[in-house]
Amino acid sequence: MAGTVNQLPWRKVDGAPLCWLLPPRCVVCGDPGLPGCDLCEACRAILPAPRHACPRCALPQPRAGTCTSCTAAPPPLDAAHAAFAYTFPLDRLLPRLKFHRDFAAGRVLAQAMVDRFTGLPRPQALVPVPLHPARLRQRGYDQALELARPLARALHLPLHADLLRRTRATRAQSRLDADARRRNLLDAFRVDACGSALPHHVVLVDDVMTTGATLHAAARALRAEGVTRVEAWVCARVA
Question: What total of structural domains would you count in the chain?
C-alpha cells in the first residue's frame, strides 16, 4: 500500500495548509507536535496499523487471507479496509470526534485514512454512512461525513453525501449484541438517487467497524438498487 503514516502532511488534509499562531500540540498526549503535525513523534509511532486483515471484513488475522466466517458466509461487502485497529490511541480519538466535537482529532484521523487508502482501487463515489435526521439534529454533525469529506478531497473522488438515507431511528448499536444489531438495522437505509444513474462501484465511509452490521445494511440497500460493487473504508476495526 502506498505511503506510510510517517509521511503524512498532517496539516494539509483539506487541500491547503492551515495556518496557526501557536505551535501544534499532540492531540493524544498534549506534548508539542512535530512541525506541521497534530501528533508528537512518540504518539504517531504507536498508531496501531494492522499487519494482516481479512479482505472482506477487515478483521485482524494472524496471516493474510480471508477469514473462516467470510469464507463460509460471504458478507454483502466486496471488500473492507480499516486504517487502524480500535486500540489506543484510536479508542480515545474516535470518541472525541464522534461525541465531543473534537475536529482536531478528526483532522488527524482523516489524514491517516488518506495515507492508508491512497493505493486502493478508486471507486466511482464515496458515500458516508449517514445518521438518522433526529440524531444528526441532536449531535449537530455527522462524524462519518467529517471523515469522508477530506478523504474525497485529498483523493480526488466524488462525494455522494445524500445518496444514502437512514430512514429509521435505530437503537444505539453499542448496547446490542451481534444478532440484535442485525435486527436493529433491518430496512434502516434507503437509496435516494433523485433520478440519476447510480455509480457501479461505491465505497462506504464510517468511523468504526464492530460487527459490520451497519455497513452490511447500507451495502444491501445499495445492492438492491443496482450498485454492483460495494466496499467499506473505516478508520478503525474492533477486533
Answer: 1
